[in-house]
Amino acid sequence: MASALAGRSGIAPALPLLSPAYLWLAVAIFLPLSAMAFFSFMTDLPMAGRDWSFTLRNYAAFFSTSLYPTLLWASLRLGLEVTFWSALIGFPAAYVLAKVLKGRGREAIFLLVILPFWSNGLVRVFSWAMVLREGGILDTALNAVLPFKVNIDLMYSYPAVIIGLVHSYVPYMVLTCYLTLQAIDDSLIEAARSLGASRLQVLRRLVLPLSMPGLVAGAVLIFVPVVGSFMEPRILGGRTGTFYGTVIEDQFVAVFNWPLGAALSFILLSVVLLILAAASPVIRRAQ
User: What's the gap between Cα 108 and its chain centre?
Assistant: First the structure.
């Protein structure tokens, strides 16, 4: 039956090409998730050499204290703020790349946009630590040009976490918006302008609606990993960088309580999936 369905849908000729990718995705995604789901219902790891049994205590720990829901809400808010700033910065940059710049200028700016992908994430975070700390690059540069002394010390603060995360994820917004803006026919914009529409009206009633699929795709690509991020909050935020993702990392790395870490991870996954499911009507309309 499956082969007949594949034949009717025209997928059969592509199955030899699709099978390796989907097989790899099944092994690399569902197998680890299945293992983590199994761990989340255990009292201890079987490789620890101690007795273990199945329990719901790990999931109950999330609801028995206000700490985990509070940190989860803080992480969701962090994801929304980083997504907002990434859209605010990334969409104009994508518009300039797609509709304003041409030739070598576009290539040079596009290279700068994807440059963060060429460096290790840890290197990017510690680079920002050198810039944002007291006596760092930003502090020294401002004091060199200003007639009065300023003290710029953003390290171990919430804005430092936002800056580091936006720098890491804004290229996703630029790339997705660039693809949709590039697909908009320039003649549509010229026609709107010739009919008397202002630049703001063209942006609000033509460009933004047609580029909405890129904005939505970029928002999803940014929001989902930011909610569970731990490296930028831990290094740039210090004590203020305690979020849901850092607590999960502590359970796996510091405390070695994998069952609780797995349960907290699946709760986060469930919440993110519920948010995406609730937003799916908006996403479908945008596409």
Answer: 25
* Residue 191 in tokens: 């026609």
Distance CA 142, CA 118 (A): 28
CA distance 159 to 141: 19
pLDDT by residue (tens digit) across 78-125? 999 999 999 999 999 999 888 888 778 788 888 888 887 787 888 888
4-15 pLDDT per residue, tens = 444 445 567 777
Amino acid 51 reads D
Alpha helices in the chain (DSSP H): 2-9, 15-25, 31-40, 57-64, 67-95, 103-114, 121-132, 137-145, 158-183, 186-194, 199-202, 208-227, 231-237, 244-253, 258-286
Q: What is the pTM of this model?
A: 0.86
End-to-end CA distance of the chain: 32
Q: The domain at 66-286 falls in which architecture?
A: Orthogonal Bundle (1.10)
Q: Are 214 and 176 in contact (CB under 8 A)?
A: yes
